[in-house]
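Standup notes
- HV: blocked on the assembly model, inputs below
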Amino acid sequence: MSDYTLETEAGRREALRRMLLIREFDTTAGERFNDGDIPGFVHLYIGEEAVGVGTCGALEPEDYVASTHRGHGHCISKGLDPELMMAELYGKADGYCNGKGGSMHIADVEAGMLGANGIVGAGPPLATGAALTIDYQDRDQVALAFGGDGSVAQGQVHEAVNLAATWDLPAIFVIENNQYGEATPVEKQHNVDNLSDTAGAYDIPGVTVDGMDVTAVYEAVSEARDRALAGDGPTLIEAETYRYRGHYEGDHEPYRDEAEIEQWRERDAIESFKERLIERGELTEAEFEEMQAEVEETIADAVAYAKDADLPDPEQAYDDMFGEPVPEIQQFASRPRADGGTEGGDPT
Amino acid sequence: MSDYTLETEAGRREALRRMLLIREFDTTAGERFNDGDIPGFVHLYIGEEAVGVGTCGALEPEDYVASTHRGHGHCISKGLDPELMMAELYGKADGYCNGKGGSMHIADVEAGMLGANGIVGAGPPLATGAALTIDYQDRDQVALAFGGDGSVAQGQVHEAVNLAATWDLPAIFVIENNQYGEATPVEKQHNVDNLSDTAGAYDIPGVTVDGMDVTAVYEAVSEARDRALAGDGPTLIEAETYRYRGHYEGDHEPYRDEAEIEQWRERDAIESFKERLIERGELTEAEFEEMQAEVEETIADAVAYAKDADLPDPEQAYDDMFGEPVPEIQQFASRPRADGGTEGGDPT
Amino acid sequence: MTAQAELEADQTETMTVREAIREALREEMRRDEDVYVMGEDVGRFGGVLEVTGDLFEEFGEERVRDTPIAEAGFVGAATGAAATGTRPVVEIMFSDFMGVSMEQTMNQMAKMRYMFGGKTEMPVTVRTTEGGGMGAASQHSGTVHAWIAHFPGLKAVAPGTAASAKGLTKAAIRSDDPVFIFENKMIYEREGEVPTDEDFTVPLGEASVEREGADVTVVATQRLVGESLDVAADLEGDVSVEVIDPQSLYPLDTDTITDSIGKTGRLVVADESPLSYGIHAEVATRVVENAFYSLDAPIQRVGTPDTHMPFSPPLEQEVLPDGDGVRAAIERIT
Amino acid sequence: MTAQAELEADQTETMTVREAIREALREEMRRDEDVYVMGEDVGRFGGVLEVTGDLFEEFGEERVRDTPIAEAGFVGAATGAAATGTRPVVEIMFSDFMGVSMEQTMNQMAKMRYMFGGKTEMPVTVRTTEGGGMGAASQHSGTVHAWIAHFPGLKAVAPGTAASAKGLTKAAIRSDDPVFIFENKMIYEREGEVPTDEDFTVPLGEASVEREGADVTVVATQRLVGESLDVAADLEGDVSVEVIDPQSLYPLDTDTITDSIGKTGRLVVADESPLSYGIHAEVATRVVENAFYSLDAPIQRVGTPDTHMPFSPPLEQEVLPDGDGVRAAIERIT
Ligand SMILES: Cc1ncc(C[n+]2csc(CCOP(=O)(O)OP(=O)(O)O)c2C)c(N)n1
Ligand SMILES: Cc1ncc(C[n+]2csc(CCOP(=O)(O)OP(=O)(O)O)c2C)c(N)n1
Ligand SMILES: [Mg+2]
Ligand SMILES: [Mg+2]
């Protein structure tokens, strides 16, 4: 059983909580990035929460997910721990990747998270590969890849979907159409009206769903999962959604205006799902406030934890290149570092 | 004006002649390869003649064509000289590529032939690029790429078609579905019934035509060319055809049987087109015999020419790497070669 | 120096590496209508690292063309376009993405001229960014120029100063050969004097002696040119350091480097490539081949110790080669 | 040698390089159910260069899997499969096609373990063929192993004999790291003695002294191992040539090579890579770094002179490094 499902009241509340958690995590990550606490890049998922949560609600914990550069929401949806995620964003030794990965590479393969990915389009081949393992070992699982609207232009996505379709692998491809690939609108990247039209090139089901509606996403993915488990091969799902923030923090956003953002905000996935639950008598305003407060506390704790945690030792830079280490690298790991160890390479 | 068109009687006779020329060229190339005269690989076009000839009949001489590893038929259709082609197959200094290319790389960019290509799927991006030049310079031309059924699985084909479609470039993509990619049948490479279904992923017209019918191919390409010139973007055409010979000479063909080959031979493109011309009173049996004899002579002459021609001098191996030569290579070009010059590199 | 040369040398302007590249693009686009730029968000957005900047405003969307996220498609298209009469300048946002377009690069762009027996030119320029230092982690921090320098049929340049950034970019665009320009992203803000002459180019295959010295030669690339110059200035009086920026990685100006070793007898090679099979080994080997008997001390390599770029700053700083590494290397042999 | 070792050494069989690789695959597939092979026409067809041969008959289509022509897709899928618990062995028909899958290779396969802080293994093996000599022209004759040897996170091996072909293939499959096996297509028919012990492997990172000598060390790879051994035999009496096959390009066994130079003082490096930034330079540089004062003569490089492989036999023979080149190099320094 999934740890939440939109079929039950408890599950729906959990879904709402995860959406809130994502929004709070990413709002905070953005702030801490802008403060200069978090190095590198961050790509925030704010506005797209229903896609990640609707998708993972339809999956079981043992299912695999290959994520994207905009991966925080997928990780939280999949059940990863916000503390360890935040610690990773802070580059700390006990973050998910021991500080080696950062925002763009959070992974927990044991938990089925095959990694955020800094390469547009790289998730689908990995998911096809995970699906191949599942098929080869006759396991009862599926593998799912997220991809942005932009990723559909990548050849490796085409190759991966074609393989999964031709081999009838238990894979699912979820395209998060948030209307832009960086600054470029989807119409300038593709000629089709709906990105789900590309499913026709593989003779697999392709559907476009409202990505601001967590239930619609959930239902599409559930159906796709059943199909995959039945041996009927992959499904391609396009979820129409929107990112409220820039492509990355710091984006000056010359390509869109406030009015457009406002339009989408009116369809806000959290707001509308909350309303629906209240209408159905499954939630009260007070409960929601409480949930929100809890979530804020969770994320505040995650930040406190992350700030407090230790940075990795410089020598750890040499770990994890290989299962069986090589002398080329080991010579650096073991050299004396009186000078602070930042001198760069010299193998003699 | 094209140098032949299927709209006129003379053009139709020329089309028939080119089909015969291709078949004779490739039959002979196969024999000379099996004799050991021709080094390397050869991939023969026998059986598929209607596709190349129908296609190029619909093009103008200034149009660009990007070919494949199975390129002899495209070259002849495009009007290349069989003598210089055969000389190239023989690795002679005055072959199309001065012996540097061989069967898989025959090119004549001036004549619009952007090259046979040893990489499956590499033609479409080149054609998209040629179409970009055409568009950029406002020229009145189109660019066309051939690809095999196998090439449709390549990501670079997907990327190229998507670019051309999104940018409305004057490009045409012709998929030669000869039922196999090497030893693998088309059903094991793709999940779609018709490869032209992939056009839906780009919202461009996709048609499947009888690739054993030179007129059907001609018509589809003519229409696509008009569309391209009108600024309406690319078309994807699948031509169903068959290769009578193995994937390459030497293929032991465990993947098909004689009966299958026989079935296709019954639909032979040359035979049926000849019959049609005779029926229409545009050709007599005697004229056909004469045409066949002429073609045989042409190819026999080409072989004689190729055999007779000089091999390149070893030093020519260092030419043509760059427009502006580099010392790294020049040092070899100029070194004394008393020992026969086959000693390989040493830059001191 | 002749009076004329002095006059011309005077005609310089201070600008950053980023501005120098942008001006090179602008001048070449003004000069030749067949030159145009394409890549992801290079247009109105101005490029993720802001290099194309305002070119879109001057030249419009046909000449500063945004592409879908399809490096194989647009590098392949640039190759086909270059073979048919235009001169595309492609931006690959991060050099780590070159893998997507490696097929088109290695088998088409690099080989067409040769395979066709010279029957085509290949006037295509590929610009891309390299290097660690901004916490961008392993997939956005690579230094992969050794691949292109090694692969036959491609030319590779890597500017270390604003002047070479401009001159190499212009030379690349004017060349009928495919040239890759490797821009280290940490030096876009570095300022320098740049000749204003519109015909100023840095010929492909010429190194630049950035500082003369007598005791040791540091051959440094990209960011490490500046850091090595700083170290050299610092060591002044103690050790006399000659700093050479090869500028072109392929072709590589062996003569300038070996002449220097003839003088100093000592070599440090500093480049951000991973050390094994990197740029360093080729430079070292050419010196050994051409100045074997001049060498007075073991050769020193300063580079990335065969790891990827890790995300966390202390890890990244650990593996990133820098001025301290160059100084330590100099000290080991002087 | 102990009696036991002698006994084991005795247990060999004569086979070709092709057979040795096939037997390695067979043994490892029998040993571990999670090992399977995939690639274009590797199944019933047996592989274009006939390496997988009859494996399909023994293991069936799930374990000897034909793929569409989609190197990016199936190399990427193998990466995802390796991260989730199986051990794929991928065949890329010609190494020239590696460009298609370079993204998956460089950014996923090579980096996942590191980026994830060790949170995955990557037990994937990639087999591919290299080299000129059969008139296959520029897109089917490349030698690109320097790319993989240079790129962090990948291991690269290149067998020169039937024994190393078997031992390296088995070691690669058993390794939890990504290993590329570069098979020179001209030596598939070369025969040699191969240990029959099913646990015989050639550890990654160990060179093999194929012939002992005192005057000059030839470090040779792939086809050039055999050709160098022939030259050494020919020169016997005149010059005493030590021939070392590094077997692994990365990691590279520096000690065995520098020990040999300690003895001979002279080095020839023979590898079919293009010379600039090729395998040669790294071998040379490691020797210079570790045995600088032992070197008695300039280092000699024998390789492809920075061209592609041309089609026509006299051109191809001109640029293809061979035994004559090795001999000439030896003669220049002895
Ligand atoms: C192969 C590759 N090319 C380019 C990039 C740079 N890049 C990072 S995110 C991005 C836009 C992706 O757009 P989309 O797939 O729609 O995802 P979104 O950011 O909208 O979630 C680009 C171009 C990259 N990471 N990888
Ligand atoms: C990228 C790439 N992968 C694999 C090959 C090897 N190869 C050459 S031809 C061929 C089959 C091509 O099939 P198809 O596209 O249907 O063309 P056909 O040979 O049937 O004309 C293959 C796999 C190649 N040349 N390039
Ligand atoms: Mg998007
Ligand atoms: Mg075919």
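- HV (later): unblocked. Chain B touches chain C through 51 residues (CB under 8 Å). Confidence is low (pLDDT under 50) at residues 338-348 of chain B.
- Next: hand off to the docking folks.
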